[in-house]
Structures are given as structure tokens and as C-alpha cells.
Amino acid sequence: MDTSESAGAPFDLVVIGAGPAGLTAAEEAQRRGWRPLVLEANSQVGGISRTVRWRGNHIDIGGHRFFTNDARVLQRWQEWTGGRMREVPRLSRILYRRKFYAYPLNLCDVLLNFGLIDLARAGASYACSLARPIRPEVSFADWVSNRFGHFLFRRFFKSYTEKVWGISCDRLRADWAAQRIAGMSLPVAVLNALGRGRGARSLADRFLYPALGPGSLWEAVADRVVAAGGELRLEERVVGIAHRDRRVVSVETEAAGGTRRMLPVQRLVTTMPLGDLIAALDPPAPAAVRAAAAALRHRDFLVVALSVARPELFPDNWLYIHDEGYQVGRIQNAGNWSPQLVGSSGTSLILMEYFCSRGDALWNQDDAALVRLAAGELAGLGFADTCEITDGHVIRELNAYPVYDETYRSHLDIIRTYLEPFGNLSPAGRSGLHRYNNQDHAMLSGMAAVDVLAGVPGTSAWDVNIARSHHEEQVVAS
């Protein structure tokens, strides 16, 4: 069934996607007096920052800290939550061969856990990196090896990173490291051990967090947008975007049950993956642009939530699992983020994160097999007996991580060059910009997208979080 709305655009802004970037853009538009329509393909707002309810538990997909050095973002969080967010101390460690290492690396842990031979190898390797640094510094392997030596790169970075991305560290670009773990190096670890370091810039030691998970905040923002006169349509997917003379004129959507609508567009913010955006354009983009969009890759992942009949398993918010013998990449302990995430007293909610790609062997396992795998790995790591694991639930997340492979930048440049002349379209968000953004960066891109469409000079959502440094050096938490 096909329907169409009135020829004159009834909304000042159409937003594709109700994640952090899209909802922030809609709320920002209302501050300008615009009426937004938000279209979300899923049944729940929040995107990858949504909170999934399961048997009284609240599952945060991926673990979403709230930290920022931007006063506007902090002000929005406080306004949207009425100032009611927990301040949570961060504790995260690396688990490697049954030994714990602080993250960022701390010299004391290395000295305690390494034998003399490994210490000598690490020292010699780092000396080599100082004497003969890799130039040019192109890959993730280059970036880390130059700062820690190749021995520590292989011990503490290679396995986990390749679990996450599914490609060799030689193929992952240094851009990712420079944005995510800037400031980390062996000298920093030494200074931290001596109490004289500032720590890595990418690692805030405290963060804000909503008691019922990040999705509760984004649900509040969605309610706010609707209460102020905006509209939110869930389970309505954009399947076509018509344009003329470098302006979007309408979007075609498909709702549950197959109903299609044609919606006129005055302005458009899109957070859909760039590959999907380019594929939806009518008339089609040039062949080179379509090829570039098709070449952009995402990494998907699975969360296996386990209910464990023991209240305290480990003190960390999360653990990085670097052992090659385990498929799990990261383990979240939900109760250490907020006790209110855990549905039953005397139990733990453990979130086992598996990085994969749709269609691969891990993705294709059924839910029962994935729960068995996760339970077996949690027990194998020594955190719980299998008899204590009473229940499990699987969440599958597509397009979780934009991949920074060896070709992504050239493809992204082609797409950006094609899209920028569109006078009433602005991409935003992690998938919309193909950039590994945090929540605050996603929000800033949503704000910038609205500024672009309002004609504010010198603004671009593409320029949010592009510096080869991460944005956590000064964390505003109160």
C-alpha cells in the first residue's frame, strides 16, 4: 500500500535515525523553532545506545560512559535528566593468561606479572622502537609499536584489536589509535607508576551514567521532542531519497506491514550508514560514488547477557579479554555501572561481547548455542561455575563499528565531495559520518548538522572528532 503526505513539507526537518545524533538534531531543531519528524527503523529509540529490557534487567549494549569536554553537551545531559546521573568510578583491566593488567598499562603490573625474560624482551623491543621508529606511521601496528615496542604490542594490543575489527592490525589505520588511545606510551606507564603521570588522554577515571542505562536518557529526549510538537515514527525505514538539483525533495519509507509513504522534505539530517544513504538516492549517485559507498565496511557484534546467581564476580566495569583461546572480546559487569541495571538482588548481570560480521560462523550460531558458548567461556575464565549461570539472552547489533581499513579514507573523501553540495542534507552520527564517535561526538555532529542546515557559516558535521587526538583530556563530570 502506497500513501503520500501533502505536497508542502509539513515538517521543517526530517531526521533519519533516533540515536544520539538524530535525537540531538531533532531537539536542537526545536530550539530554532523548527518542527522535526524523526524516522526510526527499529522499535526502540537510542540506536546502539539504547537499553534493552530483559527479565527485569536493563542491558546497555556496549557500555556507554557519559563524559565530555564540551559544556553544551554536559548542559544537555543535565537538562534532559534533571541532573540525576550517577558519578561512577572507572575500573577496567586487561585479562591475559589469568593475570590482570591495569588499563592503561601500568609499569607495576608489568613488573609483577612478567618474568625476567619477558621484561628483558619488552625493554629491548622498546629500545629498538626508539632507535628505529616506523616511518611513515600508517597502521595501528605502527602506531602502537612506536610507543610500546613490538613485544608489548603483540602481548597487549594485537589479539584484542583483531577480535574487534576482524582484520590484521597492519590493515587497521593509525587514525583509529590516534583518536581512541591518544597519549598512551611506555613512558606514560612509567610516570603513572611513579605517581607523576597524567594518564592517557583517552581514559577518564570517572564518568556520568543514568541509573537505568543510556537508553533511559534517549527515551526522555524522544518524549521531549514529541511533547514540544515534533513527531517520532518507529519501525519506519527509509528506502528511497529523491533529489533534484542537489537538493533532497522527498523520502520514501516502508513501515511495518509493508505500507509505503512518500514524505516531502524541506531539510534532512541522516544518520543512516553512508552505504545505505548512497544506495537510496534517486536518481542514483555516479558509479564511482556508489562503488566507494559499497566499499565502506562495518563490524557487527553480539551481546550475550548472562544472569549469574552470585552478587559480586569482579570489581571492574569491564574487562578486555586478550587471550587468543577465548572468542569473547570484552566482558561488562552491569552492576558496577549501576546496581539498578540488575533485575534481581543477589545476582550479577554479565554482558559477554563478541565481535563478528553478519553471516560469519559466530553470527550464524543460534541463540541457545551462543548462550552456551558465553557461559562456558565465563566459567573457563574462572569467574563463575556453570551451575551458577541461570539464564541468558542474545542481542545482535549491525553496523556497530565503522572499520578504518586501508581504503576507508579515500572512499570517504569521494562520498563527502559528492554530498557536500547538497544544500538541504547533512549527515551526522557514527554511521552517518563513518567515524568512530563517542556519544558526545555524535551529539555534537547532530548539533552541527542543524547549524549547517540553518546556514551558520563555517560549520560542518564532518569536522567533529577529526583531529588525530581524542577528546577526553579534560573530562567534565560535575
Automatic annotation (TrEMBL):
<dbReference type="GO" id="GO:0005829">
    <property type="term" value="C:cytosol"/>
</dbReference>
<protein>
    <recommendedName>
        <fullName>Amine oxidase domain-containing protein</fullName>
    </recommendedName>
</protein>
<dbReference type="InterPro" id="IPR002937">
    <property type="entry name" value="Amino_oxidase"/>
</dbReference>
<dbReference type="GO" id="GO:0016491">
    <property type="term" value="F:oxidoreductase activity"/>
</dbReference>
<dbReference type="Pfam" id="PF01593">
    <property type="entry name" value="Amino_oxidase"/>
</dbReference>
<dbReference type="GO" id="GO:0008767">
    <property type="term" value="F:UDP-galactopyranose mutase activity"/>
</dbReference>
<feature type="domain" description="Amine oxidase">
    <location>
        <begin position="21"/>
        <end position="451"/>
    </location>
</feature>
<dbReference type="GO" id="GO:0050660">
    <property type="term" value="F:flavin adenine dinucleotide binding"/>
</dbReference>
<dbReference type="InterPro" id="IPR036188">
    <property type="entry name" value="FAD/NAD-bd_sf"/>
</dbReference>
